[in-house]
Specification:
Helix content is 51%, strand content 6%. The protein has 179 residues and is mainly alpha-helical. A two-stranded antiparallel sheet has the order 1-2.
């Protein structure tokens, strides 16, 4: 019996007719596309965290409020998926937002296990300020970019998301043409 062929492409790797764009032999952590995406995301997140501190909320709380506002999340489960975190963390997050009077939790009459979430007037007032915060952060990080470059980047990021399974995980509150 012969040894298994360990040079074959893993089942999770899509077949490609062209060269391997991500060859482990030439992998450099500091210039890896994944690393650079993560680094950019972290810098944007830090910028938002700093900006929303003036509203006395965190970036995660801002994201939660925005998702509730746009209807992309209505339950703890929706938020967990959208924020890529566990139900326990979401429950603690919601407790803080509820204590501040920014959201209301309501159990469904037809299924007491499901808790619907909605914004209060105070929550809506904060949400009204968030687009300006997000845009200010983006403006700072995209200095020197043209609209065409931003459109190309947006298109490429959508392709990466689509290749990874679309919006099944971490659904965003913006449509494909905005933000």
């Amino acid at each position: 019996m012969s040894a298994p062929d360990n040079t074959s492409t893993p089942a999770s790797t899509p077949a490609s007719a062209g060269p391997d764009l991500f060859d482990p032999a030439s992998y450099e952590p500091g210039s890896s596309v994944g690393y650079l995406l993560a680094r950019a995301k972290n810098l944007l997140s830090l910028g938002i965290e700093q900006e929303v501190s003036g509203l006395d909320i965190t970036h995660t709380q801002a994201s939660c409020l925005m998702m509730l506002s746009t209807g992309s999340a209505r339950t703890v489960t929706d938020l967990g998926r959208g924020l890529n975190t566990d139900a326990g963390s979401i429950t603690r997050l919601l407790s803080r937002l509820e204590k501040r009077g920014l959201i209301v939790r309501t159990r469904r009459d037809d299924d007491r296990r499901v808790v619907d979430l909605s914004l209060t007037a105070e929550g809506e007032a904060i949400v009204a300020k968030l687009p300006a915060v997000f845009c200010n952060v983006m403006r700072r990080h995209f200095v020197g970019f043209s609209q065409a470059e931003i459109d190309v980047l947006r298109g490429m990021l959508h392709r990466v998301i689509d290749n990874g399974g679309g919006q099944a995980i971490g659904a965003c509150w913006t449509d494909r043409d905005g933000g």
